[in-house]
């Protein structure tokens, strides 16, 4: 029963905004009884081409991934102070679940499908091997939907 | 790689608090191109035995379930005005993702495991065929963990 708008019926990721990723990653690792994963940083603007609300932003974030649940990965995200959906969420809500992510094919077409139902892009960017788009789906779905596409 | 504390490595549910479940269920159904699911109400205190922060509460909620994603179900929850984790979340945060749910066996033992790492029960109750416990895991995990046990 693939969702027609998204072309997928699998949730792959839950993204959680944290204040201090070193501390949070240590606590998650203790809870799940695993080693603390590597903490990586999103790439600089020249590579990530990050856009937030249609404007370029130098925002970056530190990330850590937990793959302890077999059907979904948990991504911890610590934003920097530049404008981004990550920073906005932390300032408005504090720490918590920021997004639900799905893998898509042909992201441009999926974004067009979402625009037709009133859901536009709030932030997008590139990473090595793929790209992402956070959708402004909060009003309709109560959470931010992230589209991920690996090449 | 089953989690030792929980005895499971599968996330089964994402719970979302909403202001108006009729409106939200309609919007979700439109988005996923499915029929609006039945909206049910949690049982009255005499059957649910709901406890919130260690005290009995008459809190109830309206629920709607979406099973459009094949690896995880989405639960919409509209709380009433009585004290509950649902009401507290809505008052503090507004609409959004309230919990991540896992099925467990031998819930009492799993709760003991969680207490040992500093995570106590915030709300618990019975439903026909099973029981649930929301854990006070926000400080450590940034989300509320729900334990579900069907008999």
Brief account:
Two copies of one chain form a homodimer. With 151 residues, the first copy, chain A, is an alpha+beta fold.
Q: What are the main properties of this structure?
A:
alpha+beta; 2,3-Dihydroxybiphenyl 1,2-Dioxygenase, domain 1; 10-stranded mixed β-sheet; 26% helix; MMCE/EMCE_epimerase (chains A, B)
Describe this structure in words.
2 copies of one chain form a homodimer. In chain A, 38% of the residues are buried. Chain A is an alpha+beta fold and 151 residues long. The two termini of chain A are 24 Å apart. Chain A has one domain (13-150): 2,3-Dihydroxybiphenyl 1,2-Dioxygenase, domain 1, CATH 3.10.180.10. Chain A is globular, with a radius of gyration of 15 Å. In chain A, 26% of the residues lie in helices and 34% in strands. The first copy, chain A, contains 5 helices and 10 strands. Chain A has a 10-stranded mixed β-sheet. The first copy, chain A, has helices at residues 21-32, 45-48, 85-93, 107-116, 138-141, and strands spanning 13-17, 40-41, 51-52, 55-56, 61-66, 73-79, 96-103, 121-127, 130-135, 144-150. At the A-B interface, β1, α1, β7 and α5 of A face β1, α1, β7 and α5 of B.
What is the chain-wise order of helices and strands of chain A?
Answer: EHEHEEEEHEHEEHE
What is the overall silhouette of chain A?
globular
Tally the structural domains of chain A: 1
| Major beta sheet summary of chain A | 10 strands, mixed
* Count of individual helical segments of chain A: 5
| Biggest β-sheet: strands ordered side by side in the sheet of chain A | 2-5-6-1-7-10-9-8-3-4
CATH class term of chain A: Alpha Beta
Averaged pLDDT of chain A, please? 95
Low-confidence region ranges of chain A: none
Q: Tell me the strand percentage band of chain A.
A: 25-35%
Q: Percentage of helical residues of chain A?
A: 25-40%
Q: What is the CATH architecture assignment of chain A?
A: Roll
Task: State Rg of chain A.
Answer: 15 Å
């Amino acid at each position: 029963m693939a969702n027609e708008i998204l072309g997928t019926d699998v949730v792959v990721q839950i993204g959680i905004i944290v204040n201090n990723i070193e501390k949070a990653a240590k606590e998650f690792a203790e809870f799940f009884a695993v080693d603390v994963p590597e903490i990586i940083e999103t790439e600089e603007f020249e590579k990530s081409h990050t856009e937030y609300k249609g404007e370029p932003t130098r925002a970056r974030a530190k990330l850590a991934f937990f793959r302890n649940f077999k059907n979904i990965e948990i991504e911890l995200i610590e934003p920097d102070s530049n404008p981004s959906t990550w920073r906005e969420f932390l300032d408005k809500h504090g720490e918590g679940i920021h997004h639900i992510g799905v893998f898509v094919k042909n992201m441009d077409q999926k974004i067009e499908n979402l625009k037709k139902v009133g859901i536009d892009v709030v932030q997008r960017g590139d990473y090595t091997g793929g790209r992402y788009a956070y959708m402004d789906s909060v009003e309709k779905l109560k959470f931010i939907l992230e589209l991920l596409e690996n090449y």
